[in-house]
Design a protein that fits this description.
The chain is 44% helix and 18% strand. It is built from 6 helices and 7 strands, in the order ββααβββααααββ. The strands form 2 sheets. It has a 5-stranded mixed beta sheet, with helices on one face. A two-stranded antiparallel sheet has the order 6-7. A hairpin with a 2-residue loop joins strand 4 and strand 5. Helix 1 crosses helix 2, helix 1 crosses helix 3 and helix 2 packs across helix 3. It is elongated.
């Protein structure tokens, strides 16, 4: 037995088979890493998209029996482990033959991306700051995948970001009354402020 899964997309022409690590957290982390690397997805480039996904998975898992590629209709899509993930771009959009509910993420996406990054060839690894920025953005887009305590932290971070944006905009606003008191008006020409009386 294994922890099997198939990854395909809406066209269902090809599929990637995982014998091990087919659980959702691993699959979405590998997809996120491909997105972080700005690889073309299978939706936009059938050949290179699947090849890059397999490359990342193969580097991460190693071994010779953990990964397969084949025609979708010949794959074990209803495998009684994790079923089939249907991806769009680098996100999971649907799940077929799912026999149990998904658990929320146990590990942070940041930790998983770091682990995947370490398993790639050294010359292809990303810097940690880039991974951190991407992980924050991923969490904000995928709140539904976070455990309650993690979701609360991320929602607070989103709120603080929005408040900082509002404060920044407030700092740039010049009250109309202040312009009236100084007796100055501004004429905008080619993006430069010209002071005139």
């Amino acid at each position: 037995m294994g922890d099997r899964a198939v990854i395909s997309n809406n066209s269902k022409n090809l599929g990637v088979y995982l014998h091990w690590n087919g659980y959702r957290e691993f699959v979405e982390s590998v997809l996120a890493y491909c997105d972080l690397k700005q690889y073309r997805s299978p939706d936009s480039d059938d050949e290179y998209g699947w090849a890059r996904l397999c490359q990342v998975i193969g580097n991460t898992l190693g071994g010779t029996l953990s990964l397969g590629v084949g025609r979708y209709e010949k794959m074990d899509t209803d495998n009684y482990d994790n079923g089939t993930y249907i991806i769009q771009g680098w996100d999971i959009k649907d799940r077929l033959y799912k026999h149990y509910a998904d658990q929320k993420r146990e590990d942070s996406i940041l930790d998983d991306l770091r682990q995947i990054n370490k398993r790639q060839p050294e010359e292809e690894q990303l810097g940690d700051k880039e991974i951190q920025i991407y992980a924050e953005n991923w969490e904000e887009k995928h709140l539904d995948r976070l455990k309650d305590e993690d979701r609360i932290v991320v929602e607070k971070r989103i709120k603080e970001k929005q408040e900082r944006k509002i404060d920044k905009v407030k700092e740039q606003v010049i009250p109309y009354e202040a312009l009236e008191k100084t007796g100055k008006t501004y004429n905008f020409s080619k993006g430069d402020d010209e002071d005139r009386r």
